[in-house]
Amino acid sequence: MSGDRKRARQANSSRHSRTRRWLRRILLLGVVMIGVSIVQVAVLRFVDPPFSAFMASRTLSAWVHGDFGGTVAYDWRDLDRMAPSLPLALVAAEDQNFPVHHGFDFKAIGKARASNARGRKVRGASTISQQVAKNLFLWSGRSWVRKGIEAWYTVLIESLWPKHRILEMYANVAEFGDGVYGAQAASRTFFGKDASRLTPAESARLAAVLPSPRRYNAARPGPYVQRRSRGIQRQMRHLGDGYLRAAH
């Protein structure tokens, strides 16, 4: 019996040892992933990304289906080389508290939850910072794991980037049409002009398609986009040209 107890203790000790090794590996992996994410965000404060996670996913999906042609239109343009109406339109349409929040608009989240509880279909309460985190680094989907990673990247972005950089990144990685990413590519695709020459009405139309850029077209706006773009222009006038000075 003593021999059986000894073997049992040895087997139990071996299991505990393997468990500790796996826990150390998982902890090390977590530390490495946190370090990598911090480096990613720190570097992209100064380096313009050649692509985003959403662009890579779009290209990979096209390749899987045998489409090896051009599937992504993307052309980086610094914010100060865009028409001033474009960033203002984005903020008016997507995140009017952008200059003052720290990545999460808790008032908007509360309103969205209340509306959802009453059975009303509303847009989400994601801020521009959250959308940058999602578009730039993550995959599409609605899992809690993805939302948690999105929140972590949002905290990093707000901590390491100035507001001007966040808005510049959003204007360049947001999808404005089917495979059309960024204001410059969208301006060329839909209006045949440089992003620096966009009018306030055109900027509002680009911002108006953001809820569903593969469904709506800024060059041929239907009733929804026309109505929404008029509302965005009213909000732009209400906010005023100097509203984004706090975001620099």
Description:
60% of the residues lie in helices and 3% in strands. It is elongated and about 85 Å long. It has a three-stranded mixed β-sheet with strand order 1-3-2, with helices on one face. With 248 residues, the protein is mainly α. 32% of the residues are buried. The protein has two domains: 1-44; 48-247, Biosynthetic peptidoglycan transglycosylase-like (Penicillin binding protein transpeptidase fold, Orthogonal Bundle), CATH 1.10.3810. The longest helix has 43 residues, at 2-44. The mean pLDDT is 87. The chain has helices spanning 2-44, 53-64, 85-94, 106-117, 128-137, 144-160, 163-173, 183-191, 200-208, 223-239; strands at 73-74, 175-177, 180-181. The protein has ten helices and three strands.
SSE blueprint and pairings:
Elements: H1 2-44, H2 53-64, E1 73-74, H3 85-94, H4 106-117, H5 128-137, H6 144-160, H7 163-173, E2 175-177, E3 180-181, H8 183-191, H9 200-208, H10 223-239
- Which fold name is given in CATH as the topology of the largest domain? Penicillin binding protein transpeptidase fold
Instruction: Report the C-alpha radius of gyration, rounded.
Output: 23 Å
The percent range for helix content is 55-70%
**Widest sheet, order of strands:** 1-3-2
**End-to-end gap:** 76 Å
Could you state the oligomeric state of the chains shown? single chain
Largest sheet: 3 strands, mixed
Strand percentage lies at under 5%
Element string (H = helix, E = strand): HHEHHHHHEEHHH
Quantity of strands, as a count: 3
Tell me the domain tally.
2
CATH class (first level) name of the largest domain = Mainly Alpha
Q: Let me know the CATH homologous superfamily of the largest domain.
A: Biosynthetic peptidoglycan transglycosylase-like
Averaging pLDDT over every residue, what do you get?
87
Helix tally equals 10
What characteristic shape results from the CA principal axes? Answer: elongated
Structural class: mainly alpha
Weakly predicted, low-confidence segments: none
Question: So, CATH architecture of the largest domain?
Answer: Orthogonal Bundle
